[in-house]
Write a sequence for this structure.
């Protein structure tokens, strides 16, 4: 009854225990008839202070109102689906504590502090990189781990050991596509054609280049690399250069409209090469704008394929989603990633053996190795980013189908031991790659 909390900032949230005890004892002496005896008071007070929580609390930090509500709702749906399936951790009921920052950066700062006051074991979210970046220093100061769900900004995890993420960063797609080209297709030469002054295209192309060179053990694996202007509509000279260079595949991290036009012009020029892209092509517009014949054979990575059956958990998730929302419904990727965030959190709590020691939970999270999530196998790297399986889709006979799953490559690095807590048959990842 005496455990009041001060909302005066992260560093001074609780009263000093000794000062509080002395103050309470003095007040008890003044109010002796009400407190009876000091011994009775001490027994009651310390029993309350040390009694374990009846539930395990998981915070849900999301925009549940405001302009980004629809995206926050998708993540909420995934979390609640997982909670319905797995409602306990550490032998206790899991209590979800929702914190709505109303899609407002200024409100987000006070909301995360209010959520921290409720002492969640882990926080899930938020949709929107900026909100997670706002929450990060407050969570780190209180040693409360967090799992971002659809954030792709590298800064969310790179500067905070308490933040992890389920969705891989954008540039990771370049690694996955290169592995598909070299290992799935067996190609040894590639070209890169990307839009100029596009940060995403630059980052993902660099990852593709590096991985192709590594896998082919050929510093000249990229035989042509060209940039086109956003205003250009005639791609003839680029396509001719690619064909003359003898590239077997072309990595094209372009928007759907540019990609569709390039496919059509390549078909007209009879350029015999396979175009590879990113999840930006995972939309019906690809075939609608390019046409079935021009798009035939193109392939691209995707963050989630609900019908791939990539893991057993993917089947469990899909069955649960359809049970609730309709047999003909396919879940969005954000729902699957949110489902995985909750499941990974529960798994880490159970392995940590505590909901009160943030550092122990962080250690358990960092040791997550090949967790079979709905969106694929998940392993966290040193930054808290996922090394995970990636589904490759391709256009075959006018339809988009799953054709390949890029799996993580695990090797033992010279002189390296396994991280503490990792299964004895596990090996270290060959860098931050799938």
């Amino acid at each position: 009854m005496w455990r009041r909390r001060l909302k005066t900032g992260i560093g001074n949230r609780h009263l000093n225990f000794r000062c509080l005890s002395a103050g309470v004892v003095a007040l008890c002496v003044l109010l002796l008839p009400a407190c009876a005896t000091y011994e009775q008071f001490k027994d009651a007070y310390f029993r309350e202070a040390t009694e374990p929580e009846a539930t395990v609390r998981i915070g849900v930090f999301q925009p549940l109102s405001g302009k980004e509500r629809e995206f926050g709702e998708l993540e909420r749906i995934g979390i609640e689906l997982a909670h319905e399936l797995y409602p306990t951790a550490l032998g206790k009921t899991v209590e979800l504590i929702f914190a709505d920052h109303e899609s407002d950066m200024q409100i987000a700062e006070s909301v995360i502090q209010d959520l921290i006051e409720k002492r969640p074991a882990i926080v899930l979210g938020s949709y929107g990189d900026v909100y997670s970046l706002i929450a990060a220093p407050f969570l780190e100061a209180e040693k409360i781990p967090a799992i971002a769900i659809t954030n792709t900004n590298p800064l969310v995890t790179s500067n905070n050991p308490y933040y992890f993420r389920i969705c891989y960063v954008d540039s990771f797609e370049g690694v996955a596509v290169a592995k598909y080209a070299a290992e799935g297709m067996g190609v040894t030469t590639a070209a890169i054609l990307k839009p100029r002054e596009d940060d995403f295209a630059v980052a993902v192309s660099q990852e593709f280049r590096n991985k192709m060179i590594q896998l082919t053990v050929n510093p000249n694996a990229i035989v042509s690399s060209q940039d086109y202007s956003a205003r250009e509509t005639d791609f003839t000279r680029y396509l001719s250069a690619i064909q003359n260079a003898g590239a077997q595949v072309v990595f094209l991290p372009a928007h759907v409209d540019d990609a569709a036009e390039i496919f059509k012009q390549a078909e007209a020029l009879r350029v015999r090469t396979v175009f590879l892209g990113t999840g930006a092509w995972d939309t019906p517009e690809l075939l609608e704008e390019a046409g079935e014949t021009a798009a035939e054979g193109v392939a691209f990575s995707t963050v989630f394929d609900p019908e791939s059956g990539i893991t057993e958990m993917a089947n469990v998730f899909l069955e649960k989603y359809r049970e609730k929302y309709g047999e003909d419904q396919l879940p969005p990727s954000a729902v699957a990633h949110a489902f995985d965030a909750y499941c990974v959190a529960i798994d880490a709590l159970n392995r940590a053996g505590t909901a009160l020691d943030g550092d122990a939970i962080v250690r358990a999270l960092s040791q997550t190795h090949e967790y079979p999530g709905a969106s694929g196998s998940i392993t966290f790297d040193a930054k808290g980013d996922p090394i995970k399986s990636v589904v490759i889709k391709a256009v075959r006979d006018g339809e988009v189908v799953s054709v390949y799953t890029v799996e993580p490559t695990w090797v033992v690095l010279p002189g390296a031991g396994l991280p503490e807590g990792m299964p004895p048959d596990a090996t270290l990842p060959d860098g931050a790659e799938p």
Q: What stands out?
A: The chain is about 45% helix and 20% strand.
